[in-house]
Amino acid sequence: MPETEVHGPIDFVLLEFTGDRLTGRAAEEVVSLMERGIIHVYDVMIVGKDADGAVYAVDLAESSDRVGGFAELDGARTGLLADDDLNEAAGAMQPGTLAALIVYENTWAIPFVAAAMESGGTLIAGGRIPAEDVMEALDAMETVEAT
């Protein structure tokens, strides 16, 4: 088997925020995850949708006051995200919002992926349960247990 560079799973998130400014709190956590080596951010795109539904991109370098801490992620541009991704993201957004589209690698998983590959393992299925669904299910179980 040829020597292959091992990567962790790649995910994306689209985080929608009300209004036309971001506070930066979410961005601070992304930067913290990067600094601790938990993730590697490949791309960040800030997408806006005005009250009339018109879609626009926000330049991280030129809009630091508007994008809060996301301006710190200005260098995260590998080219994985393109204009069609901007339009697809906007299709999921409500009018009058800004959203951060973030593509990141789960670098914490690289040792696990390498070990699985070295021992002949092959990923044959995977998935993700959204955090909101997990919290809702746990809350429902606590309610049932309390009665």
Task: Kindly list the characteristics that best describe this protein.
DUF6325; DUF1269 domain-containing protein; 147 residues
Structure description:
It is a single chain. The chain is an alpha+beta fold and 147 residues long. It has one domain. 34% of the residues lie in helices and 22% in strands. It contains five helices and four strands. It has helices at 25-35, 64-67, 83-92, 110-118, 131-146; strands at residues 10-18, 40-49, 55-58, 97-105. The longest helix is centred in the last third of the chain and has 16 residues, at 131-146. 18% of the residues are buried. The mean pLDDT is 88.
SSE blueprint:
Elements: E1 10-18, H1 25-35, E2 40-49, E3 55-58, H2 64-67, H3 83-92, E4 97-105, H4 110-118, H5 131-146
Antiparallel strand pairs: 1-4, 2-3, 2-4
Mean pLDDT: 88
Total of DSSP H or I helical runs spanning 4+ residues: 5
How large is the radius of gyration?
Answer: 18 Å
Strand content is 15-25%
> For the largest beta sheet, what order do the strands appear in spatially?
1-4-2-3
InterPro entries: DUF6325
Pfam families: DUF6325 (PF19850)
Protein name: DUF1269 domain-containing protein
Organism: Kribbella orskensis
